[in-house]
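Sample 1 of the test manifest.
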Amino acid sequence: MIAFLIKRLYHALLVMFVISLIAFAIQDNLGDPIQQMVGQSVPESEREALREELGLNDPFLVQYLRFAGNAVQFDFGYSYTFNQPTTEVIMRHLPATLELVAASTFLIIALSVPIGVYSAIRPRAWLSRFFMGVSIVGISIPVFLTAIVLIQIFAIGVSVAPFPADTGWGAWLNGVLSTEGGMPAYGRGDPVHVFGTWDTNFASLTGLTYLVLPAVSLASIMLPLFIRLIRAEMLEVLQSEYVKFARAKGISLRRIYFIHALKNTMLPVITVGGVQIGTLVAYTILTETVFQWPGMGLMFLNAIQRSDVPLIVTYLMIVGLIFVITNTLVDLIYGLVNPTVKLTGKPA
Amino acid sequence: MALLDVTNLDVRFALRRGDVQALRDVCFSLERGERLGIVGESGAGKSVAAFSLLNLIAKPGYIAGGSITFDGQELTAMSDRALRHVRGHRMSMIFQDPMMTLNPVLTIGEQMVECLKAHRRISSKEARAISLRKLEQVQIPSPAARLDQYPHELSGGMRQRVIIAIALLLDPDIIIADEPTTALDVTIQAEIMALLLELCEKHNVGLILITHDLGVVSQVTQRMLVMYAGRVIEQGPTREIINDPQHPYTQGLINALPQMATPGARLNQIPGSMPSLDNLPSGCAFHPRCGFVTRADGSTRHACTDEVPDFVTSGNCRVACHMVAEMLDRERIPAEEIR
């Protein structure tokens, strides 16, 4: 167990080294940070002096080694745009993103498991077919489109009247098709301060309403994938000999589905899930931009527009770290659920 | 009345192109404590017959007709709930591959206790005590430690012992064993079979043994059925059938045993293979592979290709074969003439 964690730490360092190298290598293609920092009227000589001062004229290797030397001491440099240490900037934006991802993950788990299991147990029921159809559509729609549609329906409101309203039915149908809107869809509202730089949306009801639309649209990408994955795995497990044997033992169907089958179904789902939660962090860039959610994703997009290389590199490294951490957690959980797996530091 | 009575069992699989009949007119019975063997090639319907007893045939299979009476109750008419209490309780099963039969993520103890608790109102502690006793009965080394182990920590032979222990947990009346030793090492096969036989004899448990192995059938069972293409073609006391098989198919099976071949020569075999169930030959399903369609005098027995043979009684056995029926008729006529 200890050996396993040490090995993972070593993995994390390797991943972060590679990420920092790649991020640094592309900085020359990101545009000129000086242009973003100073006004139009600043003469070329001053720009050159600033460039020299920031070390931007040094060879790539010198710049990188300077960065790596500082990074080892947890100093990732100063953000050009915020004029603050990049770690501070990121820590200020991290809670918003983590809360968004947590809310989406909760939605995905809470919905995909029951729907996936149901559509595996009753593959021919019309409700299962409906879920399968919707999930295909869900997979195909990009997240920003989902977000915009959600904003139109629930934040702005839809008012349509395709039916003649003079009959009772027409008026009722028009009412069903129209929505009032009013859901918050811009920023985080007034999050409650917890400690340090951590403000939370989970502590108040209004905070939660701000979370609803971004979380739903972020979940909309992964949810169909997980429903289909759980259904496919469960269908396979239900065909297995041990499920037949459990039936021959006279065990109740409920126990067969939720103890015998579900536990085996979840093994591959946990593996995929770990990777996908990491991917979810990446998808926040789109969701946060549409909803102007003040998290890391939005910050990252702004950093790219302003060629804020230190901030970009730090963001990429933090996301890499989150990937490694979630994968380690997933492996730990997998080891708990699957008795045939023993966690060791040795290569498998 | 026998403990288990199966009459005219008809099992079909509802496929898109129409129903395929997997079992036709299967009849057999089992007395309390009796051991019955079911033999036949792959695809003959042995396993379907076993699974249909507890209505465990995989979809789209279903019981289309016939009756299964167990201890005075009609199983085919039973509700799912009532049938669930027969499964694992009065009639339990042993499957073919012990590596696949136990759930990999549950401990041996959990899988035993859940079975007891499904049928009896007892505490987990009592259930564990009973489970331990059954593990001792199947002669597993250090049984107490096994309860908390997972299936992957046990060898194939040990797992099959665990499965036998699970089958015996609730002191059933009948155990249905579907090729219980096929997936095991040859060295373990005899041990497991001997254990199963010993436990069945000791507790007076009936056994329905499905197997390819005629040797095992002759050692373990008192009566046997031979199945071909979803139909029983010969049944009777095991010893009589093994010593004096009547049906050409049974003769072929026994002839195909390695010990029947001349040393150094090729092993005997039945030419051809089992027909597909949705495209059975006319008349006797075995006739395309049978060497007796042509009589000794060179004439063709048209009944073989045209009519499905009925059962005829020969000694203590019942055989479905036109050739046997003809021979019996011929014997009977002179007997009447003498009188």
